[in-house]
Amino acid sequence: MTPRAALVTAVLLVAGTALADPVRASALPDRGARQVAASAAEGPALKVDATTGRHAIDPHVYGINFAEESLAKELRLPVRRWGGNATTRYNYKLDAYNAGADWYFENLYYDNGTASLPDGSEADKFVEQDRRTGTDTILTVPMIGSTTAARNAACGFSISKYGPQKGSDAQWRPDCGNGVKNDGTNVTGNDPADTSVAAGPEFTKGWVQYLNRAYGAADSGGVRFYNLDNEPDLWFSTHRDVHPAGAGYDEMRDSTYATAAAIKDADPGAKTLGPVGWGLNSLIYSGLDQKTCGEKGGDCWSDPPDRAAHGGQQFAPWYLQQMKAYEQSHGRRVLDYFDNHIYPQQSGVSSGNDDPATQELRLRSTRQLWDPTYVDESWINQPVQFIPRMRSLVDENYPGTKLAITEYNWGALDHIDGALAQADVLGIFGREGLDLATLWSPPKSTDPGAYAFRMFRNYDGNGGAFGDTAVQAASADQDKLSVYAAERSGDHALTVMVINKTTGDLTAPVSVTGRTGTAGSAQVYRYGQDDVTSIKHLADQPLADGGFTATFPAYSITEYVLPAGSSETKLPTAPGTPAASAVGSDRATLTWAASTAGSSPVASYQVYSGDPAGSAPVATVDAPATSATVTGLSPATAYTFRVVAKDTAGRSSPASAPVRLTTAAAPAATCTVDYRVSNDWGGGFTATATITNKGPALDGWQLGFSFAGNQKVTQGWNGTWSQSGAQVTVKDAGWNAALATGGSTTVGFNGGYTGTNSAPRGFTLNGKSCSVPGTAAAAHIAAPVGHASPGAKAVRGHVTR
Fold first, then answer.
1. 671-771: CATH, from 2.60.40.290, 3.40.120.10, 1.10.10.10, 3.30.40.10
2. How distant, in Å, are the alpha carbons of 633, 685, 723 from that of 754?
3. SS3 (DSSP) at 90
4. For the whole model, what pTM was predicted?
5. Tens digits of residue pLDDT in 487-500
6. Burial class (CB in 10 A: 0-12, 13-18, 19+), 219
7. Which of 43, 73, 149, 321 could form a disulfide with 197 if both were Cys (CB 3.0 to 4.6 A apart)?
8. Inter-residue contact 127 to 72 (CB < 8 Å)
9. Strand-strand pairing, 107-109 and 96-98
10. In CATH, 40-54+475-568 is 3.40.50.1360
C-alpha cells in the first residue's frame, strides 16, 4: 500500500472529531501464568429468573463500524457501518471525500479507477463485503449541503491563499493548513468552492437509486440503513471550511425532512437513523447553541439563544416532535431510529489509557448506560442513564421510533479490561432493549475486544451464541460481578454470562428460577486474562435445582449454557393482534384472541403502549377476559399497543403483534392549560400552568388536575393550593379572580417526587375539561443539566492512523 493509500484508508476511520493524540495499540500484556489466589473472596449473589423480563434482543446491537471481512464472517456480524467524518462529504460519483478537520480539510480519493464509476467505488466494495458475510449495511449519506468537488489535491485552507497557519500537512501537502492562524484564531472567509460543490437531497436520492439498481432495494437484500450524516452538531468544527456556522434547530429539521424523504422516495423500505449527535450535549443543545455558547461561555449554557427561540425546549425532544409532526402531516415516517453517539467522558477511558485506576474507572463507567444512581465521573457530573433517557425521549415525543447508538467505544480493546468493558456493554445493550449499535472502530481479530464479541456471537467456533430472548438477571454488586441471561429460541437453552470486573477471584452463588426439566449440568466457556488468545471450553458445571455456586477468576468472562431438558417449560402463546374500538379522545377499547396456555394456565393479560421490554403496562385484566379499555390518552395522538399474557407461574408470553391507532380530536374546550416544568433537579422541580379562558368571562375560578405519579406540591403561588392524594386544586388568589374571555393567568408551584416526573392529567377549570396543547412536561427521566463541554478535551471519537 502506498503512503497516500495508507493515509486515505486511515482517515476514513476517523470518528466524530480528532483527539489531541492518536490512540496507539499496545502489545498484548505478557502476564505469564496467573497466580491463583489461595482462597477466592466471597462474591455477590447472582439471580436469574427466566419467567420475567422477557423481551427479544435485536441482533443489530452486535454491530461494528468497518469490521474486516474475516472477523465479520466469524461473528456472523449482523450490521456494519460506513460512518465517521470522512463520509460527510463522500462523493459516490467520484469515489472521493474531504477529510475535514481530521486531516487538514484535504480532498482525498480511493485508487479504484474511474472508468466505471460509480461502479466499483469504495462504497460499493463495502456493500459487497457485507453481502458476502450476510451483514446488513449502514451507509452514511451527506446532509451538510456539500460534497467533494473533484479527485484532486485541494484543501480547505491553502496557506498560499489564506496565509500562515499553526499546522500543516508538511509531509504530503505542505500548502494545506489546519485553518488556525498563528495567533490561535480560526481562518475565516475561505471559499467552500476550493474543495466542494453543492449537494442536496437530489444527490442523495441519486445515490440510493444507483444502489437499488446495483444491489436491489432494502427489502430485497440491498442497503438496509442510512445514517443522516455524521454528528451534524459538530459540523462547525469538523467541516468548518464549508459549514462554519453551527447547525440550528430549524436547519436540522428541514435537512432531515428533505434528505430522509429523498431516501424514502428512492427506496420506501430503507430505514433512516438520525440526528446522529456526538454525545450527551447533542440531546441538550443544537450545533448552533454549542458553537455560540462555546464562544460566549457563562450563562449562555443555561439559556442558549437557539433553544430560547424554540420554546425553551432542549434539542432532542423538539427534534423528535418535529419528526412526529411530519408523519402526521404527510402520512409516512421519515425517521426510523433515534441515533446518538456516546463516548465515555471519564479521563482516559475511551482514549485507551490502561493504568490500574483507569481500568477500574472504565469498568464501572459502563453504568452510565443505564444506572440512575451512577453520577458520571467527568465534567458531566450527573446521572446519564443514556439508554433509558433515549427511550424516555422517544416515548414522550415520538413513540414507535427505535433506538440506535452507531458510535461508542470504551477503549483498551487491545487489553483484557477493554474486553470486559465491551462484553459488559453488549450485555447492557441486550438487557436494556437497544435496537441497534455499532462499535467504533473495529478491533483486530486477535484483540481481546474481538473475543468479547465472540462470547456473544460464536463462543465455541461453531456458531454458539448468547440467547436472543433476554430474561431477568441481577447481581447484588454489578461493579464486581455483572450478569446477563437470555434464552435461545432455536433450542431453548438458557445462556448466562458472568463478568468478573475485579482483579481477584470471586466465589458466588447463581440461582436460576423459572425452568423445569433442566439437564443436570451446564456447558462452560471462559475467556480471561490467563489466556487472551482463545476461549476455553471447560468442564461442565453441575446444577442443583437449576442453580450452582462457582468461582469466577479475576478479569474473566464466563458463559454457561443450560440445556432445555426433555420437559422444557412452555410459555403461553402470544395473544392475537388486538383490534381497537370505541376510540375516543382520551380512551380506546382493545380486544384480542386468547393466548393458548403453556405449562400453566393463563392468569392475566397486560396491555403495553410501545415496547413491553421498556415500559410498565397501561392496563391489566384477569383471564379469561380478552378486552380492556385504556384511559388517560392524549387527543389526536398516535399510539401503538401490544398485549402480553401471563400464566399462573408468572411466565410471560411473547408480545402480540402491534395495533396502531390515533385518538380522536378533543372536544371543543372552554379553556386551555399550558403546563411547563421550568426546572427539574431530580427529586424536586418547579412548574407553571398558564390558564386561558375560552368560554364566558369568569369572576372566580378553580383549576383542578391529577398527578400521574407520586408528586407532591410543597409550595404554590398566585392561588390557594390544596392536594388530596394525586388530585390538586388551585383556587384564584382574589386579585386574579376575573378572567375575561381569551384572558390568561399563570400559577406556579414547587414540588417533590421520587421515580418519574410525568405530566399531570385531567385539567379542569370550574369543573369543565381543558385542552393541554403543547405540553412541555418533564420527561420520565429528568432532563439533563446543560454544561459547557471541555472543548478539545471532550472525548468525541478515536483517531487511528
1. 2.60.40.290
2. 23, 11, 17
3. coil
4. 0.76
5. 999 999 999 999 99
6. exposed
7. 149
8. no
9. antiparallel
10. no
